């Protein structure tokens, strides 16, 4: 087994204690680059999830009864500890997730930023005083925590997706039971360990791990519990829809941050170098495994050939390797399942007439590495035009004019992010308005920040995370009518 940093934990965190599964069953966590086993974590079930919910419920009166400033102190300390242990956390993330160290370090800072931000936003959960409907009354509106909430997070951002949910939930006074992805539980447990060091009271934040087969059981225990008032989920659209159906049973609230099918449009008036830099970020970062990755690259006809030639040259130079090696710019895919999906989508596209300019196959270094790939002549009859690729494959189509680009971009049930490059100020406003998405990147491929609302429209989700809006979903409004004054 690989030597892990000492403060990192391999048991679940429930009620302020580090616990194993009552069955004794464990799940091996592996390095996707090598297949090496890093550690093992407990495989929890329904009973353990219920126990975690109960401990969260027990912690709720004290935590929600504290002042926002008291909660903020703990969250700020948590943020400081995450930053202080950034190297160790990043190393762990690279080991279990595969992304290059520079990206892991970037994610750790991004993750810490949610703790800092929501520590402050929790102090600004202002209510309202509304002009009353009768003279002897006053109308007050307050924002209150929900109680116990559940978080279910994916493997592509193993720390940031945890804090993006936990920070606003806890800042508002809720207590959380988190189920991290089976591929990356160690990062979540490490974050919990730092939360414990920061002074989180027992039961306020709990982490329950499991294998992929355990996820429906743990998820159902969370959704079905009458104590759990809300689920915050980031993951696939299929699972998100299932959870939402399950939540209907007792009307558990749910926020969903689901799959995307982002269009990345390059108009002929664009700064081409800037657009190429943007693709580097939102296509090859995290090996293309982000829900805001450029799934469809639409390039205006007149600049297509030059654009493809330069992008292919750039893609061919991307240094692929283990994320811990200094020179590495792109790591492996998460697992064989991810690899098979990328291979299937590329084969389907090639079979229907797409041309591969560079890459297109498993990388010669072996394992779960896929070659940085550029493909053209992509059309809407290909599966990759409709399915999230989650791989380093730049799939390019052409368009004639602005209207054409907008129609193509919106031709999908998804609506998370969209990008376009143009220097025409009129076009910038027209296209930004017309794109049916929750997030628009204009002349940039880098849109994630704790200060802005992240979330999708259409089948990409419900709710927003981050920003001043991101705490609202973790609260409930209460209207108090004071009469007889
Ligand atoms: P991906 O295919 O990218 O792994 P998933 O939606 O399957 O995306 O996984 C996202 C998160 O949802 C993970 O933590 C996973 O364990 C969890 N999950 C998967 N299936 C279920 C389910 N039926 N109920 C609750 N959580 C689930």
TrEMBL record:
GO BP terms: gamma-aminobutyric acid catabolic process
Q: Does the keyword Transferase apply?
A: no
Coiled-coil residue windows: none
The EC category is oxidoreductase
**Which InterPro entries does UniProt cross-reference here?**
Ald_DH/histidinol_DH, Ald_DH_C, Ald_DH_CS_CYS, Ald_DH_CS_GLU, Ald_DH_N, Aldehyde_DH_dom, Aldehyde_DH_Superfamily
Q: Which SUPFAM superfamilies match?
A: ALDH-like
UniProt entry tagged with the keyword Lipoprotein:
no
Q: Which Gene3D superfamilies match?
A: Aldehyde Dehydrogenase, Chain A, domain 1, Aldehyde Dehydrogenase, Chain A, domain 2
Name one cellular component (GO) term: cytosol
Give the superkingdom in one word: Bacteria
EC number(s) per entry: 1.2.1.79
Domain named Aldehyde dehydrogenase is located at 18-480
Q: Which GO terms describe its molecular function?
A: succinate-semialdehyde dehydrogenase (NAD+) activity; succinate-semialdehyde dehydrogenase (NADP+) activity
Which family is annotated?
Belongs to the aldehyde dehydrogenase family.
What is the protein's name according to its record? Succinate-semialdehyde dehydrogenase [NADP(+)] GabD
- Taxonomic classification: Bacteria, Pseudomonadati, Pseudomonadota, Alphaproteobacteria, Rhodobacterales
């Amino acid at each position: 087994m690989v030597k892990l940093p000492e403060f990192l934990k391999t048991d679940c965190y429930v009620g302020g204690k580090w616990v194993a599964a009552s069955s004794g069953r464990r799940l091996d966590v592996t390095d996707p680059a090598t297949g090496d086993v890093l550690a093992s974590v407990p495989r929890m079930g329904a009973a353990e999830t219920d126990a975690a919910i109960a401990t969260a419920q027990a912690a709720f009166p004290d935590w929600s009864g504290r002042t926002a400033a008291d909660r903020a102190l703990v969250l700020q300390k948590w943020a400081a500890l995450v930053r202080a242990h950034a190297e160790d956390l990043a190393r762990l993330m690279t080991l279990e997730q595969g992304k290059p160290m520079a990206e892991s370090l970037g994610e750790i800072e991004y993750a810490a930023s949610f703790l800092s931000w929501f520590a402050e936003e929790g102090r600004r959960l202002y209510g309202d005083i509304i002009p009353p409907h009768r003279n002897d009354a006053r109308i007050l509106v307050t924002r209150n925590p929900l109680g116990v909430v559940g978080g279910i997070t994916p493997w592509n951002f193993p720390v940031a997706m945890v804090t993006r949910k936990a920070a606003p939930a806890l800042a508002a006074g809720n207590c959380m039971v988190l189920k991290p992805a089976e591929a990356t539980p160690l990062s979540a447990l490490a974050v919990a360990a730092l939360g414990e060091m920061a002074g989180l009271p027992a039961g306020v934040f709990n982490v329950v791990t499991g294998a992929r087969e355990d996820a429906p059981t743990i998820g159902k225990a969370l959704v079905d519990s009458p104590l759990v008032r809300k689920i915050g989920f980031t993951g696939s659209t299929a699972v998100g829809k299932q959870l939402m159906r399950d939540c209907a049973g007792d009307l558990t609230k749910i926020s969903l941050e689901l799959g995307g099918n982002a269009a990345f449009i390059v108009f002929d008036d664009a700064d081409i170098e800037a657009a190429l830099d943007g693709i580097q970020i939102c296509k090859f970062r995290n090996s293309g495994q982000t829900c805001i990755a450029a799934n469809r690259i639409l390039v205006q006809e007149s600049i297509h050939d030059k654009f493809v030639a330069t992008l292919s040259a750039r893609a061919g130079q991307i240094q692929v390797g283990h994320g811990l090696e200094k020179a590495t710019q792109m790591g492996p895919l998460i697992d064989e399942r991810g690899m098979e999906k990328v291979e299937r989508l590329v084969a389907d596209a090639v079979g229907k007439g797409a041309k591969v300019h560079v890459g297109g196959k498993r990388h010669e270094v072996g394992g779960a590495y896929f070659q940085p790939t550029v493909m053209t002549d992509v059309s809407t009859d290909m599966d990759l035009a409709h399915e999230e690729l989650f791989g380093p494959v730049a799939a390019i189509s052409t368009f004639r004019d602005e209207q054409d680009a907008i129609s193509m971009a919106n031709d999908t049930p998804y609506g998370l992010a969209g990008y376009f490059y143009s220097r025409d100020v009129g076009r910038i406003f027209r296209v930004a308005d017309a794109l049916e998405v929750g997030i628009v990147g204009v002349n940039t491929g880098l849109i994630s920040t704790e200060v802005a609302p992240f979330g999708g429209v259409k089948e990409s989700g419900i709710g927003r995370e981050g920003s001043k809006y991101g705490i609202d979903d973790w609260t409930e409004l209460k209207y108090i009518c004071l009469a007889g004054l």
